[in-house]
């Protein structure tokens, strides 16, 4: 049987150049996250909450397909495992007290 490309290989390999703007390169801090979903998509809101001020802001929103969410989950699990193998076990942070959100 002739060599056939594996499912993850492309016979016409091309490189895709990804550009990152300065604002995106700088990054944003998030200390909370909210996940909601419908049949068609997952929405991940990353937030920076200021508990002492009773305020917060959504610093980023990512909307993805369920299939892509599965790949993200696998990539995160793989990277957590690699991190713990290199630096030691991560202790899960204690969950914050429940708080209500009011959208502006």
Brief description of this entry?
The protein is 26% helix and 24% strand. The radius of gyration is 19 Å and the shape is extended. The protein is built from two helices and three strands; from the N terminus they run αβββα.
Give a description of the structure.
The radius of gyration is 19 Å and the shape is extended. The relative contact order is 0.11. By secondary structure, the protein is an alpha+beta fold. A hairpin with a 4-residue loop joins β2 (42-50) and β3. It has two helices and three strands, in the order αβββα. The chain has a domain at 24-86. The protein has a three-stranded antiparallel β-sheet with strand order 1-2-3.
Number of helices: 2
Largest sheet: 3 strands, antiparallel
Helix content: 25-40%
Q: Quick check: average pLDDT?
A: 87
- Alpha-carbon distance between the termini? 62 Å
The total count of strands amounts to 3
Beta fraction of the residues?
15-25%
Q: Which spans of ≥5 residues are poorly predicted at pLDDT below 50? A: none
Q: How big is the Rg?
A: 19 Å
Strand order of the largest sheet: 1-2-3
């Amino acid at each position: 049987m002739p060599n056939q490309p594996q499912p993850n290989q492309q016979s016409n390999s091309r490189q895709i150049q990804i550009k990152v703007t300065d604002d995106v390169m700088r990054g944003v801090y998030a200390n909370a996250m909210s996940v909601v979903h419908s049949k068609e998509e997952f929405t991940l809101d990353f937030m920076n909450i200021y508990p002492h001020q009773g305020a917060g802001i959504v610093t980023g929103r990512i909307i993805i397909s369920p299939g892509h969410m599965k790949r993200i989950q696998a990539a995160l699990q793989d990277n957590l495992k690699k991190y713990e193998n290199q630096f030691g076990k991560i202790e899960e942070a204690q969950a914050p007290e429940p708080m209500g959100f009011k959208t502006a």
